[in-house]
Design a protein that fits this description.
Subcellular location (chain A): Nucleus membrane; Nucleus, Nuclear pore complex
Radius of gyration of chain B: 25 Å
Main location (chain A): nucleus
Order of helices and strands of chain A: HHHHHEEHHHHHHHHHHHHHHHHHHHHHHH
Oligomer: heterodimer
Largest sheet of chain A: 2 strands, antiparallel
Largest interface: A-B, 35 and 33 residues
Mean pLDDT of chain A: 79
Helix content of chain B: 10-25%
GO molecular function, one term (chain A): protein-macromolecule adaptor activity
Helix content of chain A: 55-70%
Number of strands of chain A: 2
Largest sheet of chain B: 5 strands, antiparallel
Distance between the termini of chain B: 21 Å
Strand content of chain A: under 5%
Low-confidence stretches of chain B: 358-365, 488-510
Family (chain A): Belongs to the NDC1 family.
Structural class of chain A: mainly alpha
Number of helices of chain B: 4
Pfam family, one (chain A): Ndc1_Nup
Chain lengths: ~675, ~525
Amino acid sequence: MFSAEQSCWFVRKVICWRAAASIAWAVLLLPPTTSVFVILGGFSLFHPIQTISECLTLIGSASAMLSLILLCGVILMVGFLNLEYYTVIPTIACSRIALLGQLLHPHQFVNSLAHCIMGVIVAGCCAVIIGGRYETLGYPCTQTDGSPQMCLNEYHLLLLLAGAFVGFSHSLSGVIHNMNYVSFHAVQQYKYLRFKGSLPLVVKCSATQALYSIRNYIVVYLFLGYIPRAWICKTLDLHLNSSVHPLDTVTGLLDLSLFYHLWISATFLLFTWYITLLLFRIFVTEVYSFPVQSSFTDVAIQCLPKVLTDKQPVILKFLALQDLALLSQHSPSRRAEVFSLSQPGGHPHNWNAISKECLSLLADLTQRLVAYHDTVQTNGRAKSLSTGSERKTSSETSVTSGTEDLMSPRPNLLMKTPASVFSRSIVGGPLSPLTAPFTPDLNSPFASPAMRRLTAPAEQCSPWHGSVQSPHIMRRVPKLWSTSTDSQSNGSPPPSPASVLSPKQESSKPSLLALFLQNRKEQVKHFLGKRVLIMYLFNKLPEASSQALFADSQAHIWALEGLSYLVEASFSEDQFGVVQTALPSILSCMLVLQEAVDRHFKLPHASSKPVRSTSSMGESSYKTLRFALRATLKTAIYRITTTFGDHLNAVQMSAEHRKRLQQFLEYKE
Amino acid sequence: MCSLALFPPPLPSGQTTLCESNNQLLSGFNTEDRLKQDSSPLSLYFPRESLKLHSRTESSSKAAFLDHSETLWMRSAAAWRDGGFKGLLNEITNSHTEVPKWLSVSSGCTLALLRRFSSFHGSLFPHLTLSCEDMIAEFSQVLNWSDCVVRAFAWHPHTDKFAVALLDDSIKIYNPKSATTPTLKHRLQKSVVAVQWKPLCASALAVACQNCLLIWHVDPCSLSTRPSSGCAQVLSLPGHSPVASIAWSPNGSLLVSASPVDTAMIVWDVAAESCVELQRVGGGGVTFLSWSPDGSHLLASTPSALFRVWETRMWTCERWPCLKGRCQSGCWSPDGSRLLFTVQGEPVIYSLTFTETPGVTTCTSKGPQAAAVVADLSETTFNTPDGDIIVGGEIQSLAWDPRGERLAVLLKGDPQAAARPPMIAVFKTRTKPIFELLPCGFVQGEPGAEPRLMQFHPNFQHGALLTVCWSNGRITHVPFYFLSAGIPHFGLDGSPSLQRPQERPADYANQSLFTELIS
């Protein structure tokens, strides 16, 4: 209740206003953008003067005003959708089937539909603005027998459908490229300068994206264009003018001016939407300065130590951590507040709350990494100790591993990704916590057709399916997908390799049933493994699980920075020695995390760098978060060791950690 | 105000500067000096003959082959591949017998137009007409970079190891505590102009190359002498080459790179491989970067008479137009409050102060209104037994020791005149309570060796340690032993015994060159 109330104040007072401001700016930018579009859309190479005079009259006309109002409405809608769908923790699909699941999700369907409709509206406005042969949907014509009737203007229809297509592909590429992910920059800049700096990129992106979309659209229209045309003719009672050449032919579409107008309209559409998105990102990631402490109780819940501990909304936690990292770096006066003691009592409440929250974040990441590593390792061990029925080469296993989890009959097991073990919450996102990026859960409506078809044979093949629902058999399944089982999701520590092994030997005794089941499973697996399409869909994307593991690592990076800068500053600024009490735990926490991160980077695919793509509006910074975390962690430890130097020898620490720390003191890491 | 007249005269030929002790520079003769230097593990010698250099450039091999007649299409494709759009136009214009008349004429016109435009652009920013190598040499902090055996040098900010970039495009890392000296080579590592170690990290070394930035991760515990190119991270951006200067932020999180042809300065988040371009109109490029030791400001000079001082919290900048030429070099005081810089064509050192009022949350610090001249290093003639030596003139680079007590100035000299050699002049400085500048002396090497590059050791215990790279490929270290005024020292072992200040034999050291008046 308490946190709900708090999230309320932040979303209500800050996020909504920021979104509103961004939308307002996007609407204000619409008239200049539209004028540029008017000039470009009506441009003719041989009559430049005429073009400009025509444009000026057009800008003043009533139809232009009307379309401008419609466009404003679209921008408002786009801004609202941005606010509704944005997330600071990206959703990472670990296999193609999971990505497909995301694309077919009802929520995404609503999004796509909205974008389609908005695309049609924008394209209609574009048609009115360009004028000429595009202006109206119907026009009076005479049939061959001489009777007057309304005919369909296919140019107008082509443009409208182009808008719908571009809108749809925009929403699809938004899912694939995580366009709703809002990333935070390492460099702070004023909003105007950031906007100015990103503007060329937006222009370039929208132009290239529009080019690709229109190319695809033309191909689609060439083959399927007759369907919507016939439908429109039928519903609106329009006729096809037989004297005009139809457009869904090669000769009809080989029209340079038509292509130019389609492209410029698509560019305009994408540009206005990208601008709205860009402004939203800039406004929402702006630094928010939380008070460190306050003497008023109603403001107290808005103070940094309180806000940091909130789980919801995630944007609040992220902004609080960002503020912590910045204040610890730049602001001595606010640092002094962190180090201060409470007035009656003399307790360092601020420091305690902040350090505790940061340490718990880091410990959480460490635990996640260890659990992931253990699952990967247990997996290998289980395979080597497996019974005869499971005798396969490792390469085979890795190839077919994708299907295994789906084959295993465990409808009541909660399959969870490492990322979703951590309480992932997407603001406004309808994805239930069970809808893990690895495996779309079986109950969800969108995934069921594909999944049920696949799971059905397994269930039919095992008539005793219900009776052998023992967890031991479940554990036998090699977990190359490295999902953690329900034991972890319930909060209990991950099963140690020993505890996994002992039930295995037990279960191999009543093996008649199990063997049968295993054989069946193998057969199905082999059968499915040979199907190329299924392999393609279910194969794990390389390094995706690593990305998913570090999806929210921006928070950890700030926590590390904040802690290390505060500890560094405490060397000279901390009058009461409040930091010293936490120094051993901070150091050991960082060293344990360092060890876990080092171990993780030894796994295959973990240290392979993704391809850098600069020309896309989709943020790809989440792909490199793990490298950023590794570098920040090392720098943070070095910052503490460089500041304290040999004084660290006086800190209580285990021998192993001391050895590790000595490496840092000698600059040998 | 002719400051150099107060300096002690340069050493007679054959003597080299050894160290500073008891407030005076000690010198020694060459033979004993060499013995001493050869015993020291950190003094290095790279004779030019030992380096395998590229004998000829790749494009020149074309002349060795017979002319072979290809079809126009093939030639056009080759021209497009080799020379881009301009090459294609050139090819079409030259083969006017084969192409239609209108095509050759129009391409000739386009070519002429392009040339006009580029010459106009070049007249606005003359440095753009230079070739890549010449541009690097022009803007490098190293004196006579293209002919220098040691092209770049960097001390590690925390330990006693350093990286040396050589003429043959290799980088060697020396560590007195380790027997291995890793040699770094990479396909893209060409014409290295600057190297810098990442602060608060043991292994990362940033290298500014002709076409890209390389970040080497050299494991200090590794025994390998040739780390593979897989250890290097390549950062490049179209239009951002050659990279002329790099600077790590002192807290080790960001790396800034600059190119004289790119008006944008790039701030890299190296681990995440993401970058932010900081674009400002004017100047025509960025040539030299220097981050203040406290991390709050960044000096960025441009090829024209303008430099900028960036405030690194919100990344806004102050423009500083110069009167005469571009800002050649600059250095910051240890607390980041004072910037010393030099301007091309003027033999003076300017000073700017930045006062950041503590506790104020506004991000722009109110800077000063004008720069003050703190030293005049115009040419001065010294009478030495070997004849008159003229010292002074234009300044190539500045280096300030991390405690703010010694300032080394590399004077360009005149390469044509033998009597005007390049010279390192060292000043004693004090930043608190008031800024003071006192003469210390000249640092000289072996006869015939000219200083090319210098850098102070970032954490020398007993004072300051100046590392100088000489034109003959030798790297020497000149220690300045002194007790820091700011920090009280108790029982410094290893430093030479102190003597009374009044025992100083010469009185010129007492004369202050510049003392700031407290207003």
